[in-house]
Amino acid sequence: MNGGRYFLDTNVFVYTFYPSQGEKRGIAQALIERAIHDGLGVVSYQVIQEFCSVARRKFPDAFSWEELRRYIVQVLAPLCRVQSSIHLYQSCLDIAQLSGYSFYDSLILAAASSAGCKTLLTEDMQAGQTVAGVEIVNPF
Hints:
Layout: E1 6-8, H1 10-15, H2 22-38, E2 41-44, H3 45-57, H4 65-76, E3 80-82, H5 86-99, H6 103-114, E4 119-121, E5 130-131, E6 134-137
Parallel strand pairs: 1-2, 1-4, 2-3, 4-6
Antiparallel strand pairs: 5-6
Helix pairs in contact: 3-4, 5-6
């Protein structure tokens, strides 16, 4: 990463709960620990929503409501720097129109940009591309 704030996409958090993902799981765990400790890692409300949906419905061992509450408080909430707003949606639409990314991918990019992130860590978009001042990096 090139210094400054960085945004972690939902898949980073999800991989930590799949033992079968081996190397990706280890990388994801290290990224989350670093984000919490250095204070530069960022997520948005969207990442929290997506994580909650996956944790309850798709994890090999689905989260209970209490486990989900704890994870939100201990891991996701300290990183959440972007809430929903009309400005965020307008930015998302601009990004989607210019980049061709889906609405939800563009919303992640808009959130990263609005939080002043220089890097978006995800495997869901075109690595090496810079959109709205945010470089997309596949950490895996």
